[in-house]
Amino acid sequence: MDPLPKDGESAAAGEPSRGAAPSSGVVVQVREKKGPLRAAIPYMPFPVAVICLFLNTFVPGLGTFVSAFTVLCGARTDLPDRHMCCVFWLNIAAALIQILTAIVMVGWIMSIFWGMDMVILAKCHRGKPPHSVTPTNTRDG
User: Fold this and answer.
1) How far separated are the first and last CA of the chain, in Å rounded?
2) Which of 21, 35, 75, 128 would give a disulfide with 42, using CB separation of 3.0 to 4.6 Å?
3) DSSP secondary-structure letter at 102?
4) pTM above 0.90?
5) Which of 61, 42, 56 is nearest to 120 (CA)?
6) Interatomic CA distance for residues 99 and 107, integer angstroms
7) Host H or E run for residue 95
């Protein structure tokens, strides 16, 4: 007869405790898979991202269009293997999609969400590069 789980997490998960230490558990890492247009959103300084959100809110696609030029100024994206010009044109394509579909409100909503993503990326990656790797063992044997 297995003892009843004592902590709320293992009881909520529906797994019975098997004598493991209360601090043991499974670490799950979730990564969002982004399409090429979404991954082309540049990591901009926070004030620039807020300006792009403002522009996208009132003139759909304008903030995305401005953000395309930040790629040419050296802003990083989640597409490190693509050339800078390719990422620039992906952002221009996203801006055109937003402008052309704004008539039926889809582009306007997409434009606002795009601007929100710019601000979120700028806030989350403030002061650190988007693809920073922390070494696990730096000592020489």
Assistant:
1) 48
2) 75
3) G
4) no
5) 42
6) 6
7) helix 84-100
**Comparing C-alpha atoms, which of 58, 50, 37 is closest to residue 123?**
50
Distance CA 138, CA 20 (A): 32
Distance of CA 17 to the CA centre of its chain: 36
Three-state DSSP at 40 gives coil
32-66: pLDDT as tens digits: 788 888 999 999 999 999 999 999 999 999 999 99
* Higher pLDDT among residues 125 and 109, named by residue: 109
Q: Is the CB of residue 56 less than 8 Å from the CB of residue 111?
A: yes
Distance of CA 89 to the CA centre of its chain: 19
